[in-house]
């Protein structure tokens, strides 16, 4: 069978992942979840093709032409969050142009709304939750016949047009048994993280997140499943061999969740002369001096840390499971050890005041080289949605996810813009910004960028 893994076209520079979708002109990460399924299809013995239409800057017509050239029996795509309705249109275009190709979808929204996703897109099947074993079982069952109707973890269109939703498959208990994603199928030069060297690579060394933040879409769940440190090194060496990467991002929900494991990975990176710049996602309450020492020694230059708010009351509302005081102490410790600090914040949390936002701005100025500020979005499938569903206007198509209270939304946008501008136009940023910033941008261009972003 000829299988095409297609990252759907989008006019914006979107990174699609199961846990989130992000859009930023300075970042672009490969669709790792989709690439992992390419590895599974290869292991199952199929003829596999991979196309990242976002990175290749393909519009719809170019993507359809690519499908025509590949002539696959099956196209599989991951659906995004805020651009879900746009993705629906892209899948519909594929269905209209190629009525006999099997179309499969996965992602957070297809998992929680399988029937609606299939009705909107006219896809043939949806994979629920962690898709690797589901995909393998589906491909195996199709070897000798049509699309099977009763593979666990799928929603499938029947011959009469009805849809059968089978129960969600269980998690992959041991990701070490999964094939390595075929990193060689990517064009590494198309991806980037700001101010890290190119070519740039990306690895997911663990899935899931054991922390209980109630607003977060975890990558497949709260149970942490991890590659062995030795397997992580094999992935890095494969990236280096195939793309000669100069920098790396660990995209685990929380790479530092188990400090002893991180230390083992770092020691192996040193033993194997990995010699790369790298970054990772972290939590402030997981940072300890011994782990940070080994991370620094192994080449880590940047920590991306979800703070969300410096208000203890709002931290508790988000079930962060830590304190603002602990976060400040640990992040300052990392900053003083020489790490670049990127921190993430949310505004528009119910009950938030201007004083809460001021506290977060001051926290950011004390601790951070870079920040990201977003308005709180309450996603179906999260505990926070269960709590606030009555306050939220949600629709898959046309896609809408916002608070019903327009004044709340107006204030959140104003606070986001004020936060962004207050940080990036402050003397503290100008004095502490890593030298790479002004090596890439003149002061005038940097100010223009900040003003534009703070008025979005």
Give an account of the 3D structure:
This protein is an alpha/beta fold. It folds into two domains: 164 residues, Rossmann fold, CATH 3.40.50; 262 residues, tm_1862 like domain (pyruvate-formate lyase- activating enzyme), CATH 3.80.30. Helix content is 39%, strand content 19%. The chain has 17 helices and 19 strands. It has a seven-stranded mixed beta sheet with strand order 4-1-5-6-7-8-9, sandwiched between helices. Strands 10-13-14-15-16-17 form a six-stranded parallel beta sheet. A two-stranded antiparallel ribbon has the order 2-3. Helix 7 crosses helix 8, helix 8 runs parallel beside helix 9 and helix 12 packs parallel to helix 14. The radius of gyration is 22 Å and the shape is globular. It starts with a strand and ends with a helix. 45% of the residues are buried.
Which descriptors would you attach to this protein?
456 residues; alpha/beta; Rossmann fold; pyruvate-formate lyase- activating enzyme; 2 domains; seven-stranded mixed beta sheet; six-stranded parallel beta sheet; globular
Task: Compile the SSE list and pairings.
Layout: E1 2-7, E2 14-16, E3 21-23, H1 32-43, E4 47-52, H2 60-70, E5 74-78, H3 84-97, E6 102-106, H4 108-112, H5 114-121, E7 125-127, H6 132-141, E8 154-157, E9 163-165, E10 200-203, E11 206-207, E12 225-226, H7 229-243, E13 247-250, H8 259-271, E14 277-282, H9 289-297, E15 300-308, H10 312-317, H11 324-336, E16 340-347, H12 354-367, E17 370-375, H13 383-388, E18 392-395, E19 400-403, H14 406-424, H15 427-432, H16 435-440, H17 443-453
Parallel strand pairs: 1-4, 1-5, 5-6, 6-7, 10-13, 13-14, 14-15, 15-16, 16-17
Antiparallel strand pairs: 2-3, 7-8, 8-9, 11-12, 18-19
Helix pairs in contact: 1-6, 7-8, 8-9, 12-14, 14-17
């Amino acid at each position: 069978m000829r299988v095409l893994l297609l990252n759907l076209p989008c006019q914006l520079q979107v990174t699609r992942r199961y846990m989130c979708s992000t859009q930023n002109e300075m970042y672009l990460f490969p669709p790792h979840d989709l690439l992992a399924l390419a590895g599974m299809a290869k292991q199952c013995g199929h003829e596999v093709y991979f196309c990242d239409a976002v990175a290749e800057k393909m519009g719809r017509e170019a993507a359809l032409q690519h499908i025509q050239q590949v002539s696959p029996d099956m196209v599989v795509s991951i659906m995004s969050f805020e651009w879900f309705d746009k993705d629906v249109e892209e899948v519909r275009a594929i269905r209209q142009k190629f009525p006999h190709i099997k179309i499969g979808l996965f992602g957070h929204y297809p998992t929680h709304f399988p029937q609606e996703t299939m009705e909107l897109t006219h896809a043939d099947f949806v994979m629920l939750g962690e898709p690797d074993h589901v995909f393998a079982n589906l491909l195996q069952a199709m070897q000798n016949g049509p699309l099977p109707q009763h593979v666990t973890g799928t929603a499938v269109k029947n011959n009469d047009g009805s849809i059968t939703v089978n129960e969600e498959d269980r998690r992959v208990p041991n990701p070490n048994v999964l094939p390595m994603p075929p990193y060689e199928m990517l064009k590494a030069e198309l991806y980037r993280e700001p101010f890290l060297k190119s070519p740039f690579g990306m690895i997911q060394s663990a899935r899931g997140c054991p922390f209980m933040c109630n607003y977060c879409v975890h990558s497949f769940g709260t149970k942490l499943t991890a590659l062995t440190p030795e397997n992580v090194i094999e992935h890095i060496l494969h990236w280096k061999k195939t793309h000669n990467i100069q920098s790396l991002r660990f995209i685990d929900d929380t790479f530092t969740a188990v400090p002893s494991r991180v230390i083992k990975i770092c020691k192996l990176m040193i033993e194997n002369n990995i010699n790369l710049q790298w970054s990772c996602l972290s939590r402030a309450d997981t940072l300890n001096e011994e782990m940070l020492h080994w991370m620094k020694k192994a080449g880590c230059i940047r920590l991306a840390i979800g703070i969300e708010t410096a208000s203890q009351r709002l931290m508790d509302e988000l079930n962060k499971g830590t304190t603002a005081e602990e976060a400040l102490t640990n992040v300052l410790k990392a900053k003083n050890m020489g790490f670049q600090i990127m921190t993430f914040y949310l505004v528009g949390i119910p009950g938030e005041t201007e004083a809460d936002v001021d506290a977060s701005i001051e926290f950011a100025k004390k601790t951070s080289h870079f920040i990201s500020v977003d308005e709180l979005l309450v996603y179906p499938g999260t505990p926070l949605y269960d709590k606030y569903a009555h306050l939220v206007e949600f629709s898959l198509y046309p896609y809408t996810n916002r608070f019903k209270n327009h004044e709340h939304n107006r204030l959140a946008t104003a606070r986001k813009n004020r936060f962004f501008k207050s940080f990036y136009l402050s003397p503290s940023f100008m004095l502490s910004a890593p030298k790479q910033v002004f090596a890439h941008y003149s002061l005038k261009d940097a100010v223009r960028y900040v003003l534009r972003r703070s008025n979005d």
